[in-house]
Design a protein that fits this description.
Elements: H1 7-10, H2 14-25, E1 36-40, H3 46-54, E2 59-64, H4 67-76, E3 81-84, E4 96-102, H5 111-119, E5 122-133, H6 139-148, H7 154-163, H8 176-185, E6 190-202, H9 205-213, H10 218-221, H11 226-240, E7 252-264
Parallel strand pairs: 1-2, 1-4, 2-3, 4-5
Antiparallel strand pairs: 5-7, 6-7
Amino acid sequence: MQDLWNAKIYSQFLDNRTKPALDLCYAIPHGFSPKSIVDLGCGPGNSTVLLKSRWPKAKVLGIDSSLDMLTTAQNKYPRITFLKGDIESFTTEQPIDCIFANASLQWVDKHEVLLPRLLSFLNLGGILAIQIPNNFHNASHQVIIEILQTPPWRALYKKIQQTLRYSKLSAPLYKIGDYYDIFSTAKVANLQLWETIYQHEMPNHQAIFTWLKGSGLRPILSEMSSLEQKNFESDYLKAIAPHYPPQKNSKILFPFHRVFMVAQI
């Protein structure tokens, strides 16, 4: 499978992308002292280094499926170990104390199966900490689907749905209650669930498109020629403008919903 990710593009808004990871990291209770941590879907290592900074004595391992992301992470943080792997096949020979998954599990289906499986890899008292983007039903993402269903893009839309592993152009609305049911069925000892809306200040609508180029648009743009990408970008910017009107200072507020979970067994 081709590497869909580009660490350089993803990192253009790295401070904004790191804030939820920081919030998740410090939502893990004070006094929890893990000896082993896995950052599952570590990307360019921005979340992994947070974990190492908070727990410097812990053995921290970053895992990602993208070689481009891993190369960036290893070059920037040479004292941390990073390995190639994917979430679906992740396993461990020895139980670990903490699994941290920041903005990665949205690429995997069947969370009702996945989350109990991840919990099974933890030591007693271990923690599974998760943050999932929940923005797929907002205009920034829905406009993508609307454009791809117009005549110029329908053939590509059909191709993407049939050929890409992560082909879903819409995603489920992640509901707090659904995750409560998953974790209560798993009988976790302690559970925190919450949702945050981050208001990102953007200089213009182009910045929203650039943000998505580093994440949600990756599977789509990878199937386009350079000319198609340029035309799609033009269509997107026209369609998105009415949904995100400029503020009095001409800046654009880009609200981004995220769901958080911290479960301790």
